[in-house]
Specification:
Blueprint: H1 2-14, E1 23-26, H2 35-39, E2 42-47, E3 63-69, E4 79-81, E5 87-89, E6 102-113, E7 116-120, E8 129-135, H3 143-153, H4 157-164, H5 168-179, H6 184-202, E9 211-215, H7 219-228, E10 237-239, E11 246-250, E12 256-261, H8 265-272, H9 279-286, E13 295-300
Helix pairs in contact: 5-6, 5-7, 6-7, 6-9
């Protein structure tokens, strides 16, 4: 048995794959953060001179698949918890804690200057070694069918993406399908809950471990329910004194966040929103206002009094 193990290890060593960078990533992202935030940056891919000839006609490819190394990630795990709370095998996720720490991302090519490519949609940090680059071929796939299969497995995937990208208008439109109409109250709920969930997801917390305690009523509640996923049906929703105009997202120990809507936010809205808008137009316009003038978010350690 020991002889077999020795030979297996020897074979593994002899067939070890050695990867050399063909270039490097340059952008403003120097530390780990949510992929959606990194993708907002325009990145420059600097290809090393030895591989310059490989860029011939690359401008004909609007989208590219870029393979890079998670050079700052040292951890490796075989199971991981994704944002929606499920635990999956590492190969069924996009976690950077992979055995070989390789990432693959489809990017849009914006332009080229010699051996430097400007791309958007890349979730690699500054200095990441680029291992390979190839044109994106989706001809054998039906994109809608592929995305549908992913959504069946993780129904809140698109919602989480919109939350992390702070696409509050899209979230408001989707929440209105549940609520029945667009209004400032629904928009307030969307904005406050989005801020909390951004913090929760950034800390890699399991959102299913949290309960929503609503001390308010009417339209904002539906916005918060939609964003947090803490609904009566999941048994993670508690209604308390509706006069306090606040809500909590707390774990079982009472640790989490409190969002308090400011008493003078209506005056602020009336002063900063154009006159004559319909309720739906006010709801959408409200998303552009300063959140700090509308509500406050604080981390708390204890469960609020009943």
């Amino acid at each position: 048995m020991n002889f077999l193990i020795f030979n297996f290890n020897l074979l593994a060593y002899l067939f070890m794959i050695v990867l050399e960078p063909i270039g490097f990533v340059h952008n403003a992202c120097t530390s780990s953060q949510a992929p959606e935030q990194i993708k907002k940056e325009v990145s420059e891919i600097e290809i090393l001179p030895a591989y310059a000839d490989g860029l011939q006609d690359i401008e004909q490819s609007e989208y590219l698949d870029l393979i890079f190394s998670f050079h700052q990630e040292k951890r490796t795990e075989l199971t991981t918890q994704i944002r929606t709370g499920e635990t999956k095998g590492i190969f069924a996720s996009r976690s950077p804690r992979r055995p070989n720490h390789l990432g693959v991302t489809t990017v849009k090519l914006l332009g080229r200057e010699g051996t430097k490519l400007q791309v958007e949609g890349l979730d690699a940090l500054n200095g990441s070694p680029v291992v390979d680059l190839k044109y994106c071929d989706t001809s054998v796939f039906e994109q809608a069918a592929i995305h549908r299969s992913i959504r069946i497995d993780s129904p809140r995937m698109d919602l989480v993406r919109h939350i992390m990208q702070n696409n509050t208008e899209e979230l408001l439109l989707k929440a209105a399908e549940l609520h029945g109409h667009i209004c400032p109250g629904l928009a307030l709920g969307i904005m406050g809950a989005t801020r909390v969930m951004q913090q929760l997801y950034s800390q890699e917390k399991d959102s299913r471990d949290y309960t929503l305690i609503a001390e308010m009523q009417n339209c904002p509640v539906d916005g918060v329910l939609f964003i947090t996923g803490c609904t009566p049906g999941t048994k993670r929703f508690i209604q308390r004194n509706p006069e306090n105009m606040c809500f909590y997202v707390l774990d079982k120990t009472g640790k989490g966040w409190k969002v308090s809507y400011k008493e003078n936010n209506r005056e602020y809205m009336n002063h900063n929103l154009p006159a004559g808008l319909s309720p739906a137009e006010k709801g959408i316009a409200l998303l552009t206002l300063d959140p700090e003038q509308l509500f406050s978010v604080e981390e708390i350690q204890e469960t609020p009094a009943s």
